[in-house]
Design a protein that fits this description.
Bound molecules: flavin-adenine dinucleotide
CATH class: Alpha Beta
CATH architecture: 3-Layer(bba) Sandwich
Shape: globular
CATH superfamily: FAD/NAD(P)-binding domain
Largest sheet: 9 strands, mixed
Structural class: alpha+beta
Distance between the termini: 53 Å
Helix content: 25-40%
CATH topology: FAD/NAD(P)-binding domain
Protein backbone atom coordinates (compact mmCIF):
# COMPACT_ATOMS: atom_id res chain seq x y z
CA UNK A 1 0.00 0.00 0.00
CA UNK A 2 1.40 3.42 -0.99
CA UNK A 3 1.12 5.90 1.87
CA UNK A 4 2.25 9.50 1.65
CA UNK A 5 2.21 11.83 4.63
CA UNK A 6 2.11 15.61 4.15
CA UNK A 7 5.48 17.05 5.17
CA UNK A 8 4.04 20.56 5.19
CA UNK A 9 0.64 22.22 5.35
CA UNK A 10 -0.11 25.77 4.18
CA UNK A 11 1.07 28.61 6.42
CA UNK A 12 -0.27 32.07 5.58
CA UNK A 13 1.21 35.44 6.53
CA UNK A 14 -1.08 38.43 6.68
CA UNK A 15 -4.85 38.24 6.38
CA UNK A 16 -6.73 37.05 3.31
CA UNK A 17 -7.72 40.66 2.72
CA UNK A 18 -10.09 40.17 -0.21
CA UNK A 19 -12.18 37.96 2.05
CA UNK A 20 -11.80 40.21 5.08
CA UNK A 21 -13.34 43.18 3.20
CA UNK A 22 -16.46 41.17 2.32
CA UNK A 23 -19.24 40.30 4.77
CA UNK A 24 -18.28 37.35 7.00
CA UNK A 25 -18.53 33.74 5.92
CA UNK A 26 -20.87 31.21 7.44
CA UNK A 27 -19.33 28.71 9.86
CA UNK A 28 -17.31 26.09 7.95
CA UNK A 29 -18.28 22.47 7.44
CA UNK A 30 -15.32 20.56 8.89
CA UNK A 31 -14.85 16.89 8.06
CA UNK A 32 -15.59 14.96 11.25
CA UNK A 33 -16.50 11.54 9.97
CA UNK A 34 -15.56 8.68 7.65
CA UNK A 35 -17.21 8.66 4.25
CA UNK A 36 -16.98 7.15 0.79
CA UNK A 37 -17.13 9.22 -2.39
CA UNK A 38 -16.67 8.73 -6.11
CA UNK A 39 -14.20 11.61 -6.34
CA UNK A 40 -12.20 13.48 -3.71
CA UNK A 41 -10.46 16.78 -4.47
CA UNK A 42 -7.69 18.19 -2.26
CA UNK A 43 -7.62 22.01 -2.27
CA UNK A 44 -10.41 24.51 -2.95
CA UNK A 45 -8.69 27.18 -5.03
CA UNK A 46 -9.29 27.84 -8.73
CA UNK A 47 -8.00 24.36 -9.62
CA UNK A 48 -9.89 22.37 -6.98
CA UNK A 49 -13.25 24.10 -7.34
CA UNK A 50 -13.04 24.02 -11.16
CA UNK A 51 -12.26 20.30 -10.99
CA UNK A 52 -15.27 19.75 -8.74
CA UNK A 53 -17.56 21.71 -11.05
CA UNK A 54 -16.34 19.84 -14.15
CA UNK A 55 -16.77 16.50 -12.36
CA UNK A 56 -20.38 17.42 -11.53
CA UNK A 57 -20.98 18.39 -15.16
CA UNK A 58 -19.63 15.05 -16.36
CA UNK A 59 -21.19 12.91 -13.60
CA UNK A 60 -24.28 14.69 -12.21
CA UNK A 61 -25.09 11.82 -9.84
CA UNK A 62 -21.57 11.31 -8.46
CA UNK A 63 -20.56 12.03 -4.89
CA UNK A 64 -17.82 14.66 -5.04
CA UNK A 65 -16.00 15.76 -1.87
CA UNK A 66 -13.60 18.72 -1.64
CA UNK A 67 -11.17 18.97 1.28
CA UNK A 68 -9.59 22.38 1.92
CA UNK A 69 -6.90 23.04 4.51
CA UNK A 70 -8.20 26.51 5.44
CA UNK A 71 -11.29 28.58 4.72
CA UNK A 72 -12.41 29.23 1.15
CA UNK A 73 -10.37 32.10 -0.36
CA UNK A 74 -7.84 32.00 2.45
CA UNK A 75 -5.10 30.59 0.20
CA UNK A 76 -3.55 32.18 -2.90
CA UNK A 77 -6.87 32.00 -4.74
CA UNK A 78 -8.12 34.71 -2.40
CA UNK A 79 -4.81 36.59 -2.12
CA UNK A 80 -4.16 37.55 -5.74
CA UNK A 81 -4.81 40.75 -7.70
CA UNK A 82 -7.78 39.35 -9.57
CA UNK A 83 -6.63 39.80 -13.19
CA UNK A 84 -8.12 36.95 -15.20
CA UNK A 85 -6.04 37.55 -18.31
CA UNK A 86 -6.85 36.19 -21.76
CA UNK A 87 -3.65 37.24 -23.58
CA UNK A 88 -0.07 35.94 -23.40
CA UNK A 89 1.23 37.06 -20.04
CA UNK A 90 4.67 35.51 -19.80
CA UNK A 91 5.96 37.01 -16.55
CA UNK A 92 9.48 35.73 -17.25
CA UNK A 93 9.64 37.76 -20.50
CA UNK A 94 10.57 41.43 -20.92
CA UNK A 95 7.13 42.54 -22.15
CA UNK A 96 4.70 39.61 -21.58
CA UNK A 97 4.87 38.53 -25.23
CA UNK A 98 4.82 34.77 -25.59
CA UNK A 99 7.00 32.57 -27.72
CA UNK A 100 5.47 32.33 -31.18
CA UNK A 101 2.32 33.33 -33.04
CA UNK A 102 0.79 29.84 -33.14
CA UNK A 103 1.49 28.95 -29.51
CA UNK A 104 0.19 32.36 -28.40
CA UNK A 105 -3.03 31.87 -30.32
CA UNK A 106 -3.44 28.44 -28.76
CA UNK A 107 -2.84 29.84 -25.26
CA UNK A 108 -5.32 32.68 -25.83
CA UNK A 109 -7.97 30.17 -26.90
CA UNK A 110 -7.35 28.18 -23.72
CA UNK A 111 -7.39 31.25 -21.48
CA UNK A 112 -10.68 32.32 -23.03
CA UNK A 113 -12.06 28.82 -22.44
CA UNK A 114 -11.15 29.24 -18.75
CA UNK A 115 -12.85 32.65 -18.65
CA UNK A 116 -15.97 31.20 -20.34
CA UNK A 117 -16.04 28.35 -17.82
CA UNK A 118 -15.89 30.88 -14.98
CA UNK A 119 -18.50 33.11 -16.66
CA UNK A 120 -20.88 30.16 -16.93
CA UNK A 121 -20.38 29.40 -13.23
CA UNK A 122 -21.07 33.08 -12.43
CA UNK A 123 -24.36 32.79 -14.35
CA UNK A 124 -25.39 29.38 -13.02
CA UNK A 125 -24.64 30.24 -9.40
CA UNK A 126 -25.85 33.87 -9.66
CA UNK A 127 -22.51 35.18 -8.44
CA UNK A 128 -22.53 38.96 -7.96
CA UNK A 129 -21.46 40.54 -11.30
CA UNK A 130 -19.25 42.98 -9.35
CA UNK A 131 -17.06 39.94 -8.55
CA UNK A 132 -16.55 39.18 -12.27
CA UNK A 133 -16.17 42.38 -14.27
CA UNK A 134 -15.20 41.96 -17.96
CA UNK A 135 -13.74 45.46 -18.17
CA UNK A 136 -10.26 44.78 -19.58
CA UNK A 137 -6.99 46.03 -18.15
CA UNK A 138 -4.20 48.47 -18.90
CA UNK A 139 -0.43 47.93 -19.00
CA UNK A 140 0.85 51.12 -17.39
CA UNK A 141 4.25 52.63 -18.32
CA UNK A 142 6.08 55.14 -16.15
CA UNK A 143 9.36 55.37 -18.09
CA UNK A 144 10.58 55.47 -21.69
CA UNK A 145 11.81 51.87 -21.40
CA UNK A 146 8.39 50.69 -20.23
CA UNK A 147 6.68 52.71 -22.94
CA UNK A 148 8.89 50.83 -25.44
CA UNK A 149 7.76 47.52 -23.85
CA UNK A 150 4.15 48.58 -24.45
CA UNK A 151 4.86 49.41 -28.07
CA UNK A 152 6.58 46.10 -28.75
CA UNK A 153 3.76 44.26 -26.95
CA UNK A 154 1.17 46.16 -29.06
CA UNK A 155 3.05 45.14 -32.23
CA UNK A 156 3.11 41.55 -31.06
CA UNK A 157 -0.65 41.66 -30.37
CA UNK A 158 -1.31 43.15 -33.80
CA UNK A 159 0.69 40.31 -35.37
CA UNK A 160 -1.53 37.74 -33.68
CA UNK A 161 -4.71 39.66 -34.58
CA UNK A 162 -5.52 40.96 -31.09
CA UNK A 163 -6.87 44.45 -30.42
CA UNK A 164 -5.24 46.97 -28.11
CA UNK A 165 -5.53 50.71 -27.60
CA UNK A 166 -2.71 53.09 -26.72
CA UNK A 167 -3.48 55.59 -23.93
CA UNK A 168 -1.50 58.79 -23.41
CA UNK A 169 -0.56 60.38 -20.09
CA UNK A 170 -3.81 62.38 -19.93
CA UNK A 171 -5.93 59.33 -20.57
CA UNK A 172 -4.01 57.46 -17.83
CA UNK A 173 -4.66 60.37 -15.45
CA UNK A 174 -8.33 60.47 -16.37
CA UNK A 175 -8.56 56.71 -15.63
CA UNK A 176 -6.49 56.43 -12.45
CA UNK A 177 -6.25 59.95 -11.01
CA UNK A 178 -2.44 59.48 -11.04
CA UNK A 179 0.13 61.48 -13.01
CA UNK A 180 2.67 58.68 -12.58
CA UNK A 181 2.06 57.00 -15.93
CA UNK A 182 3.30 58.40 -19.24
CA UNK A 183 1.33 55.91 -21.31
CA UNK A 184 -0.78 52.79 -21.19
CA UNK A 185 -1.92 49.92 -23.37
CA UNK A 186 -5.56 48.90 -22.93
CA UNK A 187 -6.60 45.36 -23.85
CA UNK A 188 -10.29 44.47 -23.56
CA UNK A 189 -10.34 40.73 -22.79
CA UNK A 190 -9.25 40.60 -19.14
CA UNK A 191 -11.94 39.95 -16.54
CA UNK A 192 -11.29 41.66 -13.20
CA UNK A 193 -12.53 39.42 -10.42
CA UNK A 194 -12.99 40.02 -6.71
CA UNK A 195 -11.04 36.82 -6.05
CA UNK A 196 -12.50 36.00 -2.65
CA UNK A 197 -16.01 36.91 -3.80
CA UNK A 198 -15.65 34.63 -6.81
CA UNK A 199 -14.11 31.69 -4.90
CA UNK A 200 -16.52 31.90 -1.96
CA UNK A 201 -19.59 32.10 -4.20
CA UNK A 202 -18.26 29.33 -6.46
CA UNK A 203 -17.93 27.14 -3.36
CA UNK A 204 -21.47 28.06 -2.29
CA UNK A 205 -22.84 27.24 -5.75
CA UNK A 206 -21.09 23.88 -5.77
CA UNK A 207 -22.61 23.08 -2.38
CA UNK A 208 -26.05 23.81 -3.85
CA UNK A 209 -25.06 21.35 -6.62
CA UNK A 210 -24.50 18.79 -3.82
CA UNK A 211 -20.71 18.90 -3.88
CA UNK A 212 -19.53 18.50 -0.28
CA UNK A 213 -16.92 21.16 0.50
CA UNK A 214 -15.14 20.71 3.83
CA UNK A 215 -12.99 23.56 5.13
CA UNK A 216 -10.38 23.64 7.90
CA UNK A 217 -9.82 20.01 6.91
CA UNK A 218 -6.20 19.65 5.78
CA UNK A 219 -5.34 16.30 4.25
CA UNK A 220 -2.45 14.92 6.25
CA UNK A 221 -2.08 11.56 4.55
CA UNK A 222 -3.03 9.86 1.30
CA UNK A 223 -2.93 6.09 0.96
CA UNK A 224 -3.75 3.71 -1.82
CA UNK A 225 -6.33 1.10 -0.91
CA UNK A 226 -7.60 -1.53 -3.34
CA UNK A 227 -8.55 0.42 -6.44
CA UNK A 228 -8.99 3.75 -4.65
CA UNK A 229 -7.49 6.26 -2.25
CA UNK A 230 -8.01 7.09 1.41
CA UNK A 231 -7.49 10.71 2.38
CA UNK A 232 -7.02 11.37 6.08
CA UNK A 233 -7.69 14.68 7.83
CA UNK A 234 -7.41 15.57 11.53
CA UNK A 235 -11.10 14.78 12.05
CA UNK A 236 -12.06 12.22 9.43
CA UNK A 237 -11.32 10.15 6.39
CA UNK A 238 -12.60 9.99 2.80
CA UNK A 239 -12.27 6.89 0.63
CA UNK A 240 -12.64 7.68 -3.06
CA UNK A 241 -12.24 5.84 -6.33
CA UNK A 242 -10.31 8.79 -7.75
CA UNK A 243 -8.48 11.58 -5.94
CA UNK A 244 -7.39 14.87 -7.48
CA UNK A 245 -4.57 16.81 -5.84
CA UNK A 246 -5.34 20.49 -6.53
CA UNK A 247 -3.09 21.80 -3.79
CA UNK A 248 -0.64 23.64 -6.08
CA UNK A 249 2.89 23.86 -4.58
CA UNK A 250 1.89 21.52 -1.75
CA UNK A 251 1.99 18.73 -4.31
CA UNK A 252 5.64 18.59 -3.26
CA UNK A 253 4.59 18.21 0.38
CA UNK A 254 3.31 14.75 -0.57
CA UNK A 255 6.63 13.88 -2.20
CA UNK A 256 5.76 14.56 -5.85
CA UNK A 257 7.87 16.68 -8.26
CA UNK A 258 10.49 17.03 -5.53
CA UNK A 259 13.08 19.75 -6.26
CA UNK A 260 11.32 20.62 -9.49
CA UNK A 261 8.96 23.29 -8.15
CA UNK A 262 9.77 26.92 -7.40
CA UNK A 263 7.86 28.25 -4.41
CA UNK A 264 7.48 31.97 -4.97
CA UNK A 265 5.67 34.38 -2.68
CA UNK A 266 4.10 37.61 -3.92
CA UNK A 267 3.02 40.43 -1.63
CA UNK A 268 0.23 43.00 -1.68
CA UNK A 269 -1.34 45.75 0.46
CA UNK A 270 -4.81 47.29 0.41
CA UNK A 271 -5.88 50.71 1.68
CA UNK A 272 -8.69 51.41 4.08
CA UNK A 273 -12.05 52.26 2.51
CA UNK A 274 -11.39 55.75 1.10
CA UNK A 275 -13.55 58.52 2.60
CA UNK A 276 -15.15 61.31 0.53
CA UNK A 277 -12.17 63.61 1.04
CA UNK A 278 -9.68 61.01 -0.24
CA UNK A 279 -11.97 60.11 -3.15
CA UNK A 280 -12.19 63.78 -4.18
CA UNK A 281 -8.39 64.09 -4.05
CA UNK A 282 -7.96 60.86 -6.03
CA UNK A 283 -10.35 61.49 -8.93
CA UNK A 284 -10.23 58.99 -11.79
CA UNK A 285 -12.73 56.19 -12.35
CA UNK A 286 -14.07 53.87 -9.66
CA UNK A 287 -12.72 50.59 -11.08
CA UNK A 288 -9.54 49.95 -12.99
CA UNK A 289 -6.57 47.58 -13.05
CA UNK A 290 -3.03 48.42 -14.11
CA UNK A 291 -0.44 45.73 -14.70
CA UNK A 292 3.11 47.07 -15.06
CA UNK A 293 4.59 47.18 -18.57
CA UNK A 294 7.66 45.52 -17.09
CA UNK A 295 6.43 42.18 -15.63
CA UNK A 296 8.51 42.71 -12.47
CA UNK A 297 6.97 46.12 -11.74
CA UNK A 298 3.99 47.07 -9.57
CA UNK A 299 0.36 46.09 -10.16
CA UNK A 300 -2.18 48.64 -8.95
CA UNK A 301 -5.93 48.20 -8.82
CA UNK A 302 -8.87 50.37 -7.74
CA UNK A 303 -12.08 48.73 -6.56
CA UNK A 304 -15.41 50.23 -5.52
CA UNK A 305 -18.09 49.78 -2.88
CA UNK A 306 -19.71 46.78 -4.62
CA UNK A 307 -16.36 44.93 -4.47
CA UNK A 308 -15.55 45.51 -0.81
CA UNK A 309 -15.03 49.27 -0.48
CA UNK A 310 -13.41 52.14 -2.40
CA UNK A 311 -9.85 50.95 -2.07
CA UNK A 312 -6.55 50.71 -3.88
CA UNK A 313 -4.48 47.51 -3.94
CA UNK A 314 -0.72 47.64 -4.57
CA UNK A 315 1.14 44.44 -5.47
CA UNK A 316 4.89 44.16 -5.82
CA UNK A 317 7.92 42.22 -4.40
CA UNK A 318 8.59 38.53 -4.79
CA UNK A 319 10.67 35.99 -2.89
CA UNK A 320 11.69 32.40 -3.49
CA UNK A 321 11.07 30.22 -0.42
CA UNK A 322 11.68 26.47 -0.86
CA UNK A 323 10.32 25.98 2.69
CA UNK A 324 6.93 27.32 1.47
CA UNK A 325 6.72 29.88 4.26
CA UNK A 326 7.57 33.56 4.62
CA UNK A 327 8.14 35.50 7.82
CA UNK A 328 6.31 38.46 9.30
CA UNK A 329 9.46 40.49 8.53
CA UNK A 330 9.13 39.55 4.84
CA UNK A 331 5.58 40.95 4.78
CA UNK A 332 6.69 44.10 6.65
CA UNK A 333 9.53 44.68 4.18
CA UNK A 334 7.12 44.35 1.25
CA UNK A 335 4.54 46.58 2.96
CA UNK A 336 7.14 49.36 3.23
CA UNK A 337 7.80 49.04 -0.52
CA UNK A 338 4.05 49.11 -1.22
CA UNK A 339 3.77 52.33 0.79
CA UNK A 340 6.52 53.94 -1.30
CA UNK A 341 5.02 52.81 -4.61
CA UNK A 342 1.60 54.03 -3.52
CA UNK A 343 2.95 57.45 -2.47
CA UNK A 344 4.79 57.79 -5.82
CA UNK A 345 1.52 57.28 -7.64
CA UNK A 346 -0.88 59.08 -5.31
CA UNK A 347 1.05 61.84 -3.49
CA UNK A 348 -2.24 63.50 -2.46
CA UNK A 349 -3.16 60.35 -0.48
CA UNK A 350 -0.08 60.21 1.75
CA UNK A 351 -2.30 60.13 4.85
CA UNK A 352 -4.36 57.18 3.67
CA UNK A 353 -3.61 54.10 5.76
CA UNK A 354 -3.02 50.57 4.41
CA UNK A 355 -5.50 48.31 6.18
CA UNK A 356 -3.96 44.95 5.29
CA UNK A 357 -0.69 43.57 3.89
CA UNK A 358 -0.17 39.94 2.99
CA UNK A 359 1.81 37.29 1.14
CA UNK A 360 0.57 34.50 -1.13
CA UNK A 361 2.18 31.32 -2.40
CA UNK A 362 2.68 30.66 -6.13
CA UNK A 363 4.27 27.65 -7.72
CA UNK A 364 6.35 27.90 -10.88
CA UNK A 365 8.38 25.43 -12.88
CA UNK A 366 11.57 26.33 -14.75
CA UNK A 367 10.06 25.33 -18.07
CA UNK A 368 6.67 26.95 -17.32
CA UNK A 369 4.70 23.71 -17.32
CA UNK A 370 1.97 22.66 -14.91
CA UNK A 371 1.64 19.20 -13.43
CA UNK A 372 -1.64 17.84 -14.71
CA UNK A 373 -1.32 14.10 -15.11
CA UNK A 374 -2.03 10.78 -13.47
CA UNK A 375 0.59 10.42 -10.74
CA UNK A 376 -0.44 6.91 -9.80
CA UNK A 377 -3.51 4.91 -10.80
CA UNK A 378 -6.56 6.92 -9.66
CA UNK A 379 -4.47 9.82 -8.34
CA UNK A 380 -4.39 12.90 -10.57
CA UNK A 381 -2.60 16.23 -10.11
CA UNK A 382 -3.93 19.67 -11.12
CA UNK A 383 -1.05 21.71 -9.77
CA UNK A 384 1.64 24.33 -10.53
CA UNK A 385 -0.11 27.54 -11.51
CA UNK A 386 2.97 29.29 -12.96
CA UNK A 387 1.71 32.55 -11.47
CA UNK A 388 -1.43 32.81 -13.59
CA UNK A 389 -3.78 30.59 -11.70
CA UNK A 390 -7.05 32.44 -12.22
CA UNK A 391 -6.97 30.99 -15.74
CA UNK A 392 -4.18 28.34 -15.69
CA UNK A 393 -5.41 26.57 -12.55
CA UNK A 394 -9.02 26.78 -13.74
CA UNK A 395 -7.85 24.94 -16.85
CA UNK A 396 -5.78 22.44 -14.86
CA UNK A 397 -8.82 21.64 -12.71
CA UNK A 398 -11.03 21.12 -15.76
CA UNK A 399 -8.36 18.92 -17.38
CA UNK A 400 -7.93 16.80 -14.24
CA UNK A 401 -11.67 16.16 -14.03
CA UNK A 402 -11.69 15.17 -17.70
CA UNK A 403 -8.68 12.90 -17.30
CA UNK A 404 -10.38 11.27 -14.30
CA UNK A 405 -13.42 10.65 -16.50
CA UNK A 406 -11.65 9.37 -19.61
CA UNK A 407 -12.75 12.51 -21.49
CA UNK A 408 -10.53 14.30 -23.97
CA UNK A 409 -10.77 17.98 -24.94
CA UNK A 410 -8.38 20.66 -26.22
CA UNK A 411 -7.87 21.60 -22.56
CA UNK A 412 -6.87 18.14 -21.33
CA UNK A 413 -4.82 17.50 -24.50
CA UNK A 414 -2.88 20.73 -23.90
CA UNK A 415 -1.72 19.56 -20.48
CA UNK A 416 -1.19 15.92 -21.43
CA UNK A 417 1.20 16.98 -24.22
CA UNK A 418 3.53 18.81 -21.84
CA UNK A 419 6.78 17.48 -20.46
CA UNK A 420 7.56 17.24 -16.72
CA UNK A 421 8.92 20.25 -14.78
CA UNK A 422 12.69 20.54 -15.14
CA UNK A 423 14.94 19.85 -12.16
CA UNK A 424 16.13 22.85 -10.14
CA UNK A 425 19.78 23.45 -9.25
CA UNK A 426 20.83 22.17 -5.77
CA UNK A 427 18.99 23.98 -2.92
CA UNK A 428 21.43 26.71 -1.78
CA UNK A 429 22.30 27.67 -5.35
CA UNK A 430 18.65 27.71 -6.41
CA UNK A 431 17.59 29.83 -3.44
CA UNK A 432 20.42 32.36 -3.57
CA UNK A 433 20.33 32.58 -7.36
CA UNK A 434 16.56 32.96 -7.62
CA UNK A 435 16.33 35.61 -4.90
CA UNK A 436 19.23 37.59 -6.39
CA UNK A 437 17.60 37.43 -9.81
CA UNK A 438 14.23 38.57 -8.41
CA UNK A 439 15.86 41.50 -6.54
CA UNK A 440 17.74 42.53 -9.69
CA UNK A 441 14.58 42.48 -11.84
CA UNK A 442 12.66 44.37 -9.18
CA UNK A 443 15.41 46.97 -9.01
CA UNK A 444 15.45 47.31 -12.80
CA UNK A 445 11.67 47.72 -12.89
CA UNK A 446 11.68 50.04 -9.89
CA UNK A 447 9.78 52.98 -11.40
CA UNK A 448 7.24 50.65 -12.91
C1 LIG B 1 -0.25 38.79 -4.41
C2 LIG B 1 -0.64 37.87 -5.56
C3 LIG B 1 -1.15 38.40 -6.73
C4 LIG B 1 -1.54 37.54 -7.78
N1 LIG B 1 -2.19 38.08 -8.86
C5 LIG B 1 -2.70 37.26 -9.82
C6 LIG B 1 -3.49 37.77 -10.88
O1 LIG B 1 -3.79 38.97 -10.94
N2 LIG B 1 -3.92 36.91 -11.84
C7 LIG B 1 -3.64 35.55 -11.79
O2 LIG B 1 -4.05 34.80 -12.67
N3 LIG B 1 -2.95 35.03 -10.75
C8 LIG B 1 -2.48 35.85 -9.78
N4 LIG B 1 -1.81 35.32 -8.70
C9 LIG B 1 -1.60 33.87 -8.67
C10 LIG B 1 -2.87 33.11 -8.23
O3 LIG B 1 -3.29 33.53 -6.97
C11 LIG B 1 -2.55 31.63 -8.20
O4 LIG B 1 -2.04 31.30 -9.47
C12 LIG B 1 -3.80 30.80 -7.91
O5 LIG B 1 -4.30 31.07 -6.65
C13 LIG B 1 -3.46 29.31 -8.02
O6 LIG B 1 -4.66 28.60 -7.83
P1 LIG B 1 -4.62 27.08 -7.39
O7 LIG B 1 -6.01 26.62 -7.18
O8 LIG B 1 -3.77 26.32 -8.34
O9 LIG B 1 -3.79 27.08 -6.04
P2 LIG B 1 -4.11 27.75 -4.64
O10 LIG B 1 -4.89 28.98 -4.82
O11 LIG B 1 -2.83 27.81 -3.91
O12 LIG B 1 -5.08 26.68 -3.98
C14 LIG B 1 -4.58 25.47 -3.45
C15 LIG B 1 -5.38 25.16 -2.22
O13 LIG B 1 -4.93 23.92 -1.69
C16 LIG B 1 -5.03 23.98 -0.30
N5 LIG B 1 -4.16 22.94 0.29
C17 LIG B 1 -2.80 22.83 0.27
N6 LIG B 1 -2.40 21.74 0.92
C18 LIG B 1 -3.54 21.12 1.32
C19 LIG B 1 -3.79 19.93 2.06
N7 LIG B 1 -2.79 19.12 2.48
N8 LIG B 1 -5.09 19.58 2.32
C20 LIG B 1 -6.11 20.36 1.88
N9 LIG B 1 -5.91 21.50 1.20
C21 LIG B 1 -4.64 21.87 0.93
C22 LIG B 1 -4.57 25.38 0.04
O14 LIG B 1 -5.04 25.78 1.31
C23 LIG B 1 -5.18 26.19 -1.10
O15 LIG B 1 -6.42 26.75 -0.76
C24 LIG B 1 -1.38 36.14 -7.66
C25 LIG B 1 -0.86 35.62 -6.47
C26 LIG B 1 -0.51 36.46 -5.43
C27 LIG B 1 0.02 35.86 -4.16
Amino acid sequence: MTTRTARRLPVHRGPAAWSAILPGQEAPDVLGTTLTADFAVVGAGFAGLSAARRLKQLHPGARVVVLEAGRLAEGASGRNSGFMIDLPHDISSEDYAGQAVESDRAMIALNRAAIDFARQAVEDYRIDPAFFDPCGKVNGAASAAADAHNRSYADHLARIGEASEALDADAMHELTGSRHYISGLYTPGTVMIQPAGYIRRLGAGLRRDRVEVYENSPVTQIARTGSGWVLTTHGGRVTAGTAILANNGHLESFGFATRRLMHIFLYASITVDLDDDALAKLGGRPRWGITPSDPMGTTVRRIDAAQGGNRIITRTCASFRPGMEVSTADVERAAAVHRRKFDDRFPALKDVRMEHSWAGHLCLSRNGVSVMRELEPGLIAACVDNGLGTTRSTLAGIAAAELASGESSPISRHFCAKEAPLKLPPPPIAEIGANAYLRWREWRASKE
